[in-house]
Amino acid sequence: MKQRLIVVTLILLLVVFVSSAEANERGLINKAIELIYDLSQAPDRAPFLELLKRAEGIAIFPEVRRVGMVIGGYSGEGIVLRRDRGYWYGPAFFRLEGISLGPHFGVEVQGLVLLLMNRSGMEIFYQGGATTLSGSLGIAAGPIGRSFSLGVDTELQASIYSYSLSRGLFWGASLEGAKLVENERAAQRFYQKRISSREILTSYPVEETATRNLTRLLENLIKEREK
Fold first, then answer.
1. What does the pLDDT read at residue 226?
2. Nearest to 222 by CA among 36, 31, 49
3. Measured distance CA(110)–CA(113) in Å, rounded
4. Under 8 Å CB-to-CB from 223, ≥6 apart: which residues?
5. I need a labelling partner for 133 at 20 to 30 A (CA). Which of 39, 57, 73, 140 fits?
6. Angle between the 25-40 and 209-226 helix axes, to the nearest 10 degrees?
7. Radius of gyration of the chain (CA)
8. Residue 195: exposed, middle, or buried by beta-carbon count in 10 A (0-12, 13-18, 19+)?
9. Residue 108's pLDDT is what?
10. Backbone torsions φ then ψ of 40, nearest 5 degrees
11. What CA–CA distance (Å, rounded) separates 98 from 113?
């Protein structure tokens, strides 16, 4: 029975990873707009808006799919933007993925937003390759909603704050350890050339229409907080 559960889980994980890899970049940006809008409508959105106003960047993963039957996994495509004195750079493209072992069962789809508060938070996305997220990197749960992080930094001094919205079903305990992987193929398709996330986030101002719509929404939310 246990072997059968493992096989079923591995099949589900394969479907998750394949469907995620085929995500359309502009469709991904449009989904990011929907997620930010939904998160901004939360009754207790004030802390999120305050942190967004201070943030140097934002990472948005509209659909992180998690499945679990003894072996669990999660995967999702996302984009990253950097803000510098009112100007936005990006998007760079990343995948969030991982596998965990433990007694869990079910399926969950959630949107994940990371607010990158300072250079240390941005550096994670400059490195390229793969980086495993952990508390040692200065990541904390945002003051509202559920998130990947377990604790809440009441002093608001973390480098990264995580927020999520869940649409699905998942229960039980699992071993976290989300891995960020630079999506070089998505970047190459979007920019029509090979380019690193560091170059995108430091040298490429937002130009594409869908991304402009996203940054316009973000700026409106920031201005709303400044009133």
1. 66
2. 49
3. 10
4. none
5. 39
6. 20
7. 17
8. middle
9. 72
10. -70, -15
11. 17
pLDDT at 30: 96
Q: What are phi and psi of 95, to 5 degrees?
A: -115, 145
> Rounded to an integer, what distance in angstroms lies between the CA atom of residue 213 and that of residue 26?
11
Give me the amino acid identity at 37. Answer: Y
With tokens 């937002």, the residue in question is 206
Lookup: tokens for 137: 């990197």
The low-confidence residues of the chain, meaning pLDDT below 50, are 2, 5-23, 145-154, 168-175
SS3 string, 192-226, reads CCCCCHHHHHHHCECCCHHHHHHHHHHHHHHHHHH
Tokens of residue 160, six digits: 């990264």
pLDDT of residue 75: 83
Q: DSSP string of 132-190? A: E--GGGTEEE-SSSB-S-S-B-TT---SEEEEEEEEEEEEE------EEEE-HHHHHHH
| Exposed / middle / buried, residue 52 (Cβ in 10 Å: 0-12, 13-18, 19+) | buried
Question: Bridge partners of 100?
Answer: 72
CA separation for the pair 58, 145 (Å, rounded): 17
Angle between helices 184-191 and 25-40 (to 10 degrees): 100
Q: In this predicted model, what pLDDT tens digit does every residue of 79-89 receive, in sequence order?
A: 999 999 889 99
pLDDT for 11-49, tens place per residue? Answer: 444 444 434 443 489 999 999 999 999 888 877 777 888
How many residues can be counted in the chain? 227
